[in-house]
Amino acid sequence: MLADKQILQIREELENCKKPLFFFHDDPDGLCSFLLFYRFVKEGKGIIIKTTPKIDEKFSKMVQEYSPDKIFILDIAIVEQEFVDSVNVPVVWIDHHTPIQLNNVLYFNPRVKNEKDNVPVSCTCYYVVKQDLWIAMVGCIGDWYWPDFADDFRKEYPGLLADDVKDPETALFETKLGKLVGAFSFSLKGTTKEAMQCAKILTRISSPAEIMEQETPAGKFIYKKYEAAHKEYKELLDNACKTKPEGNVLLFHYAKGNVSFTKDLANELLHLFSEYVIIIVREKDNEMKMSLRSKKFILPPIVKKALIGVNGYGGGHEYACGANIKKEDYDKFIDSIKEQVSGKQ
């Protein structure tokens, strides 16, 4: 966790801006981080990063168009120096991926001090603003992290998290809170425009009951989108569960529809088949976009080795990674993963 001094520094940066621009990742952690900050300052604009979790110079045009007085980057793994140099606006970057050093950036990452301190950005943002506990809990559980405010959430929102649940995995897949996380996650499906529409609607929702009980038009809109997406997701999950593992790998490939469920499928399959390395692959535009999960193998070095001689990129957390590989190199990449986790070198 960040030091108290750093938390206060972030809060000061947030309080001392009138037109902030928020870049955030397209998962529950990134979405909830944005919501926590936006709902605190009640000003600014959000931009969701739906392709590669990277901000480079091409995003500087968005900055020029909006003319913010400060930029906050939330849960984005890579920011390039060229972007920072091109915007001429103070940049505050809060992250929990592998630390990166840049000039002229206020950078906050608990892993700088302790590589294993993988606290989600939504958790950090909650300690900064100290409001919207339910949104922070959604972000943390969605990122497989059990925060120390879980009991406070349980008391404030009874019925969403049973007293005997003590870990994020069970909370995610076996509780009503997990369904709420799913509603947030599935609200991001579709085009960037559709995802931002849902994000804006979520800025106006004040409690989980608005969504779970469909108490308001805004909550009903989010829930209906969740139901529609979940129907397609469930069909894919059922098919994935029928896939025969190959050695230590459970590989599921799909090319259906315009919506990506790779991260969601990878997480739930890891819950169901924890003994395997899970690889979910979606083909799009001659590229193979994938999510990898494991409870036994540390994935980044395995992915790094598999990328040798391959046209693509990948990386992430110890037990959760992503990769994007050109179709012609896909077999080579997958064969390397299978060989590495089988014990052969």
Question: Can you tell me about this structure?
Answer:
It is a single chain. The protein has 345 residues and is α/β, with parallel strands linked by helices. The protein has helices spanning 4-15, 28-41, 60-66, 81-87, 121-129, 133-142, 150-156, 168-174, 176-187, 192-202, 208-212, 217-241, 262-272, 299-306, 330-341, and strands spanning 20-25, 45-49, 54-55, 70-74, 78-79, 91-94, 106-108, 249-254, 277-284, 287-293, 312-316, 320-326. The chain folds into 2 domains: 4-176, inorganic pyrophosphatase (n-terminal core) (Alpha-Beta Complex); 244-341, Diaminopimelate Epimerase, Chain A, domain 1 (Roll), CATH 3.10.310. Strand 9 and strand 10 (287-293) form a beta hairpin. Helix 1 (4-15) crosses helix 5 and helix 2 (28-41) packs parallel to helix 5 (121-129). The model has no long low-confidence stretch (mean pLDDT 94).
